[in-house]
Amino acid sequence: MKTKSVFLFSVALLMVLATAACKEESVLPDFPREQPAPPSNRPPTVPTPPTGSDIRLKKITWSALDFKTFFYDEQGKLLRYYFQYNNVQGSNSVHREQYDYSYRADGKLIELKTRAGIRFVYTYQNGVWKEATAYDITLKARKHYQFEFNDRQRLVAYRSFTLTADGQQIPESRVFLSYDAVGNLTHWKEEWYQENGQTFTKGNEIVFSDFDEQKYVPYGETFGDVLHPLHFWVNNPGKKVFVGTDDTQYYQYTYNAAGYPLSKSTRSSRSTVELRATYEY
User: Fold this and answer.
1) Taking the complete model, does pTM exceed 0.70, yes or no?
2) pLDDT tens digit string along 189-220?
3) What is the DSSP letter of 227?
4) For residue 123, what are the CA distances in angstroms to 24, 144, 159?
5) 3-class DSSP string for 8-48
6) Best CA proximity match to 3, nearest among 115, 143, 123, 138
7) Are 19 and 130 a contacting pair, CB within 8 Å?
8) Domain boundaries in the chain?
9) What number of other Cβ atoms are within 10 A of residue 235's Cβ?
10) Which of 78, 119, 187, 241 falls 20 to 30 Å from 45 in CA-CA distance?
């Protein structure tokens, strides 16, 4: 179950962080008790207003084989996120992923379930995530995550741990995040634990810059698995640099009347091919 976070087709990682000591609001179910049922396989009807602050992203398309789709409840909470991409060039072969969201009565996310049956269950403290645990299809706890947020409820660090059969936590990775004054993620720095040396070594370090003055659409870009429900930007980045490599990505957008992206073009310093995505609301 070694997963790493994904920005689509790009960066990989899983992680977590240190937590403050305050009164905890726990929502962790008692396993192996049955979990909240995920949404049915039939996509719900999605009202999708084309403009306004409650805009809902319906689909991002790169090609007939490469796309993301999003389904919401009547209150606008995301119920299902599905994506697929062509994983064998020159063929119609695709890799598929799906995440189903379950919420408690007050609207806070309680569980994220993957297509493979992995469940991420979240606990809260002071209104933000405190911890999460990943359970496999047999409901055995496999990974543990710790989160730290700033006073603007932006994730600033998290750590991931592998859980052994006897309940021990072995560090896996840790990530530190920085934001600009507006609230845009500008710096992502990850470190991976080396058990032999019992120390952390440098992983991916990413810098985002050249932000526009338009609106980032929720779920338009994010990181994978346990972090997927979070939003990391207010505006849209124009540049993404993988520090210490020759890999830099440049983004250009078109917008609708409300200031949300209608399209996004991506150029890479490593390729002459331009990747274009279109957005539907």
Assistant:
1) yes
2) 999 999 887 899 999 999 999 999 999 999 98
3) G
4) 8, 11, 15
5) CCCECCCCECCCCCCCEECCCCCCCCCCCCCCCCCCCCCCC
6) 143
7) yes
8) 55-209
9) 17
10) 119
Contacts (Cβ under 8 Å, ≥6 apart) of 104 = 27, 110
In single-letter form, the type of residue at position 280 comes to E
| The pair of three-digit structure tokens given for residue 113, joined into one six-digit string | 């379930």
CA distance 5 to 225: 7
Q: Considering only the top CATH level, what class is 55-209?
A: mainly beta
Q: 3-state SS of the chain: helix, strand, coil percent to 5?
A: 0, 45, 55
Task: Tell me which amino acid residue 281 is.
Answer: Y
CA 248 to chain centre: 21
pLDDT of residue 26: 39
First to last CA, the chain: 34
Contact residues for 154 (Cβ-Cβ < 8 A; gap 6+): 177, 179, 183, 185, 232
Residue written as token pair 């934001």:
179
For residue 96, CA distances in Å to 6, 81, 118, 180 come to: 14, 11, 15, 34
- Measured CA distances, 224 to 22, 52, 99, 221, 227 (Å): 28, 27, 10, 10, 6
At 91, is the pLDDT very low, low, confident or very high (cuts 50, 70, 90)? very high
Torsion of CA 257, 261, 267, 269, to 10 degrees: 110
| Cβ 246 vs Cβ 228: under 8 Å | no
Residue-wise pLDDT for 234-279, tens only, equals 999 999 999 999 999 999 999 999 999 999 999 999 999 999 999 9
